[in-house]
Amino acid sequence: MAGMFLQQIRAAVAKLDPNDIREAAERPVSIGLVASSSSSYNAMEDYFAPAAISRGKRWETASVLYRVGDAGAPRTVDIEIYEEGLPGPPDAFSFSPGNPERTVVQIIKQREALGLPLARRLFPFRQPVVDHVIRTIAKENAVFALAAAIPDLMPNLMTMPWVIGEFASDTSFLTLNQVRMAFLIAAASDRPVGYREQRGQIGSIIAAAFGWRALARKMAAKIPFGAGVIPKAAVAFAGTYVEGLSLDRYNRVGYGFSRAERQIAYERALGDGAVAASRLLARLRDRRRDSQAE
Question: Cβ–Cβ contacts within 10 Å for residue 172, how many?
Answer without folding.
Answer: 23
